[in-house]
Amino acid sequence: MRLTYSILLPFIFFLFTLSAYAQPAANIRGRLLTAEKQPIAGATITVSGKNWRAATDEQGMFQFSNITYGNYTLSFQHQGYEKASVQITVQHPQENIGDLLMQPTHIALLDVTITTQSRPQSSVEVPISVSTVSGDLLNKLNIRQMDEMAEFVPGLQVQLQSPNNPGYVIRGITSDHGDARSQPRISVFQDGISISRSRASAVELFDIERVEVAKGPQGTLFGRGAEIGAIHIIQNKPQRTFGAAVNAGYGAYNNRFVNGYINTPISEQLANRLAINYEARDGFIANRAGGRLNGKETFAIRNSTRLWGNEKTVVDLILNYQYDNYPGTSFKSKLFAPAGGDINPNSFADLEQGEGLHIKRHVGGATLLVDHAWNDAWKLSSLSGFRAFHADESFDADGTAAQLLWLSEIAKGQQFSQEFRLNYDAGRRLSGFVGASYFYENSSQAVPMRIDQRALYPAYIAPLLGSQLGAQIGALGQNLGLPAEQISGLNQQIQQLFTTAPIMTNGQVQLTENLPNLQPLALGLVNQLLGGTLPAGVTWDQLVQSGMLPAGVLPTELITLVSLLNGSPIAGMHEESSTNYGRNQAIELFGDGSFDLTEQLKVTVGLRGSYEAQRGGYMAAAANPPSIFGMIANNGSPNLLNPVSDGTIYAQRDYFSYVGRLALNYLFDKNNVFASISRGRRPGVINILPAATNYLNPEIVWSYELGLKGLLNQGRLSYELSTYYYDWSNFQTLSIQQVAGSIAPQLLADDGGKAHSFGIEAGLRYFILPAMQLFGNYAYIDGKFNQTDGDGHAQHYAGNRFRLTPMHSYALGLDANIPTSTASSVYIRPSYAYRSGVFFEDDNRADLYQKGYGLANFTAGYRFGHRRVQYEIGAYGKNIFDTQYIIDAGNSGDTIGFPTYVGGTRSVIGAQLNVRF
Predict the structure, then answer these.
(1) Strand pairing category for 229-235 and 187-190
(2) Tens digit of pLDDT for each residue in 629-668?
(3) How far apart are CA 48 and CA 625, in angstroms?
(4) 40-50 exposure pattern, b = at least 16 Cβ within 10 A, e = fewer
(5) Which of 877, 859, 905, 912 is nearest to 141 (CA)?
(6) Which of 96, 640, 807, 889 is the most buried (most CB within 10 A)?
(7) Residue 864 class from Cβ within 10 Å (0-12 exposed, 13-18 middle, 19+ buried)?
(8) First and final C-alpha spacing in the chain
(9) Which range is the signal sequence, renumbered to this chain (predicted)?
């Protein structure tokens, strides 16, 4: 911590020194409003001939400090409004120029105001790659899910297998693990509050102001978890005027939705905004065992209250709650087709438990935001957040009608965060912020398992036992000097005993009811070893109990195995469970500032120091009754898959760490060229299990980026171009690992060693005509594991591509509004998104791969107004050509050789009505 203080304190002192230098002669203050007297936030104000710049806050207020007396020209600019200027004479200590009205332009300027750097700024000015999706665009394209939104952000992929299993991919790096002992490498925020825990991060996008996606290491801006980027969802806040809207629709697969808001001013200082969203849809996949799969039902509600304490203080209280009640996910096997069906993941399935498969999730939170302007240059912000979630998912992990692995996942957690941030911006050469934060999180993931051992035996255990016994007999034969032909013959007999009928035949389950009987084979072997001296008709039990078997003839383990495998019935249902725990605390100090070297050239420096206390836990009780196969194949354990622990066991580790960035950018004619170097970090992982605890080192990435973005053709064209290179150490991946105390390997966090990524991104938006705009983006990503690690040794995944990472992806769209009268218009908004093939695991298996595909969508309709009410009657379509694809492959069933596949969204076309007051 001393190192962090030593770096931050000079920076804080420098800010205070500049604010105190050259005491002001006067302050200028004013407010920008629309023609309807509504505040304009994020407008840019400059002073002609001076390197002074200010931005309006959410009340439309702006101010300049330290102004000497004299004559000045102030220029105003904001997207969608005509440029304006005003001449003023400063001759008093406090100059209030009052309210200024800005007139809308016929073609909206494409510059967007964002708060990525914790203050309102033009998106062009920010020296990092930030893509913004406005709430207006979300509404126009009928988007309420994060995976659909991601199509319009270059370099971003969101895999939404279900709300309980989202996967976020920024520039090839995935964050999707639900284990409570792992932490995310991509941060997801709502209004400055982290919601990054995987099982609680997928939220519906309704009544949204905008979504900002900051790419590259952004630890100084979004915390230690933003190793490779952050998704920041900014929700609409209450305004001082009444407003309301409702949007409803109905489409294929019984898709029905309704959402809307009502904004109510309570007094001059207080306003409230209530927003709701409901959407449901039948499942795309029929389940032969009952019900439908891959459906949706979600309800979300948000209440926001804003208090304007005075001209200097704004307080927001935001309450969010979302309830998901989905049918189960179709994890379908390609090994065995359902009766009368096929192995296509997009056709009907036959998953046991039928309608008992489900996803039920509760997510709620409270956010308190306080902004207080101490004076014209300094503003103090407090961000307080509490969040809790509880998710219960029941799923068929093997993807067949046999009950090999019927699992549940019960994940729950709570988190609290508090941040204080001091912002400095006097409209001069220096701006920035310093702050401190505290984060606490406590979560768990329980995985109950129900296994029919009569099904698991032929599918997985029989070959395992045959291999295990064959190895023991082979070793015994070699020790006794038996001829190779005799050993081979014994092995053939063993394999015949453990050869079973396939678990599925023509879609019907084939259970094995009895254990194989090894005793005749063992008696014959012993008789050979003893020279044929065994009494006729002697049984195995008599042989073992009578002492006729000389010591050392057979290993004790083999004697026990033969005694257990005596042809007796196999017990059916077996139940066991395990729970992993994670508790994380972090105290962080941070600072980030920009300094104008010249009027056009700026340098930005940021640093965040963190102290983290991590604790991982694990618990698995002994199954009662125990599994006979655990006793045989799992070293006497009563469990099959979960190593038994002595109560709950814990391990912990503390870290001191830092992340930071250095950026240089040059502004010219509403264009910005920038270069940056930054360091990102993902916290370490504590893989605690009864046999051993594996501490994964924190993942470190160094980022090098060059970009160009701006506005051309009088603001009709906005563009962004960037190229980057990432260099990783201790790259954290997921791998299937053999674990002591389990008959099957487990999917656990692993150290993949060195890795690198090179990429190019481009995005544009262009007004072809005043009422017609074209938008699109493209991303190229070449992300791979290095051939060797830091010590020059060959790596396990050498040369493999990152999972869930398309090499090429692009999206195109058109927004056309054709006026039919002064109060009505017709609109059409088609879009198309494509991504090339992806592997679903880092081992790049050919059977876990989705080739490239594209999805076409549209919205279209008629808009008209009547007596201050706006109406829209339209149609929407998603995946209109019904392209079939998969969104995930492998999953839990892969650990027992039953990889499963999840089909993607099918074609949904419907109609909708929107009314806005």
Answers:
(1) parallel
(2) 998 888 889 999 999 999 999 999 998 989 999 999 999 9
(3) 83
(4) bbbbbbbbeee
(5) 859
(6) 640
(7) middle
(8) 54
(9) 1-22
Q: How does pLDDT run across 544-555, given as a tens digit for each residue?
A: 887 777 777 778
> How far from 513 is each of 216, 504, 540, 572, 626, CA to CA, in Å?
56, 15, 22, 8, 18
Query: Are the beta carbons of 376 and 64 closer than 8 angstroms?
Result: yes
> Which secondary structure element, helix H or strand E, spans residue 494, and what is its range?
helix 484-497
All structural domains of the chain: 2-101 (2.60.40.10), 119-229 (2.170.130.10), 230-453+574-916 (2.40.170.20), 454-573 (no CATH)
DSSP letter at 349 equals B
Q: Look up residue 463 and give its amino acid.
A: P
Q: Rounded CA gap, 282 and 295, in Å?
A: 5
pLDDT band with cut points at 50, 70 and 90 for residue 80? low
Instruction: Determine the Cα–Cα distance for residues 884 and 896; give it in Å rounded to an integer.
Output: 27
Taken in order 348, 350, 355, 359, the sign of the CA dihedral is negative
What would the two tokens of residue 872 be?
A: 């829209």
Specify the 3-state DSSP secondary structure of 176.
coil
Nearest-angstrom CA–CA distance, 850 and 265: 51
Rama region for 268: left / alpha / beta (φ>0; ψ in -120 to 50; rest): alpha
Beta partners for 667? 672
Residue with tokens 């199509």: 151
What the block records as the tokens of 10 is 């000079």
Which tokens belong to 414?
């709570």
* CA-closest candidate to residue 143, choices 855, 889, 797, 885: 855
Tell me: the pLDDT tens digits for 709-740? 998 887 789 999 999 999 999 888 877 888 88
Residues 6+ apart with CB under 8 A from 257: 144, 247, 248, 249, 277, 278, 279, 280, 912
Is residue 469 a contact partner of residue 493, using CB atoms and an 8 Å limit?
no
Q: Which residues pair with 676 in a beta bridge?
A: 663, 705
The dihedral of CA 739, 741, 747, 749: what is its sign? negative
Q: Which residues contact 479 (CB under 8 A, 6 or more apart)?
A: none
